[in-house]
Amino acid sequence: MGKSTFIDAFGSNLTKLGNRVAVLAVDPSSGRSGGSILGDKTRMERLAVDEQAFIRPSPSAGVLGGVGRATRETMLLCEAAGYDVILVETVGAGQSEYMVADMVDVFLVLMLPGAGDELQGIKKGILEIADILAVNKADQDAGKARRAARDYASALHIMTAGDAAWKPPVLTVSGLQNQGLDALWETMEKHRHVMVEAGLFDQRRQDQRVKWMWAMVEDRLLTRFRNHEEVRRLLLGLESDVRNDRKTATQAAEDLLSAFGMGDLG
Ligand SMILES: Nc1nc2c(ncn2[C@@H]2O[C@H](COP(=O)(O)OP(=O)(O)OP(=O)(O)O)[C@@H](O)[C@H]2O)c(=O)[nH]1
Ligand SMILES: [Mg+2]
């Protein structure tokens, strides 16, 4: 996708404009070690040595919830420490995108220019949460990138409510050639302006905070549940009972909740 190259160029543009930039990553799949941290920094050569920038790789592999929470907390710390722009990278592996969308003010989706039929392959879900879409690597074949952008634009048009305060635009960019990145930043600033004017900027942050509160409560409760000794003992047999239709899902849930001391509630 060219993410590291993109962030290196985009982030460097931003520090040149006088911003302090932090780069965080959510990549629960990678099991990254010190080695790939270095790898990432070398792929962001300019930003890695930029005194106005701070690059923090993904917390080492763990459950997505934990990785997401750690990243969100670092993000808040960076904000409090006076970073003007915080870029949060996600690998694009399913759930992590939703998690990142739930912590940022603007969610940018990078796409590659592909054949027309590529559109069918893209996950519809990701377009639904995109605030801005950018077709990257447009330097390779400008015509192809423009065609892809047009396809994405019509897909987005169909999905966006007519009265939405913000309609996700599609841009073409090249991280490698630093093309279209100034226009992208202007679009992000415009997004912020529109959201503030519509009273949606604070609302989004409020909604996100409440969502995170519940995510943490659910997370902790579920962990406590799964670690409960009797629940663990029962689970071994119950899952296969449910799988093989020896027990209904409802009965099994009831057994587990009873073992946890929460039976007979429903
Ligand atoms: N032509 C062209 N090539 C690019 C562009 N951006 C990145 N590349 C190339 O694509 C390859 C992958 O780029 P990265 O920036 O490492 O991509 P990434 O998404 O960070 O990759 P992972 O971290 O491995 O997931 C490299 O060979 C880059 O030189 C671009 O805008 N145009
Ligand atoms: Mg990378």
Structural account:
With 266 residues, the chain is mostly helical. It folds into two domains: 3-199, 3-Layer(aba) Sandwich (Rossmann fold); 210-259, no CATH class. It is built from twelve helices and six strands. It has a three-stranded parallel beta sheet, sandwiched between helices. Helix 8 links the parallel strand 5 (132-135) and strand 6 (170-172). It is elongated. It starts with a helix and ends in a 7-residue tail after the last helix. Bound molecules: guanosine-5'-triphosphate and magnesium ion (MG). Guanosine-5'-triphosphate binds at residues 1-5, 43, 136-137, 139-140, 174-176. Magnesium ion is lined by residues 3-4, 40, 43.
Sum up the overall morphology in one term: elongated
Q: Describe the main β-sheet briefly.
A: 3 strands, parallel
CATH architectural label of the largest domain = 3-Layer(aba) Sandwich
Straight-line N-to-C gap: 48 Å
Q: What are the bound molecules?
A: guanosine-5'-triphosphate, magnesium ion
Q: How do the SSEs run, as a string of H and E?
A: HEHHEHEHEHHEHEHHHH
Q: What fraction, in percent, of the residue positions are helical?
A: 55-70%
Overall residue-averaged pLDDT value: 88
User: Strand arrangement, largest sheet?
Assistant: 2-1-3
Which residues form runs of ≥5 with pLDDT under 50? none
**In CATH terms, what is the fold-level topology of the largest domain?**
Rossmann fold
> Which superfamily, in CATH terms, is the homologous superfamily of the largest domain?
P-loop containing nucleotide triphosphate hydrolases
Which CATH first-tier class of the largest domain would you pick? Alpha Beta
**In angstroms, what is the radius of gyration?**
22 Å
Number of helices: 12
Q: Say what oligomer this is.
A: single chain
Class by SSE composition: mainly alpha
Domain unit count: 2
Q: Quick one: how many beta strands? A: 6
Strand % is: 5-15%
InterPro entries: GTPase_ArgK (IPR005129), P-loop_NTPase (IPR027417)
Protein name: LAO/AO transport system kinase
Pfam family, one: MeaB
GO cellular component, one term: cytoplasm
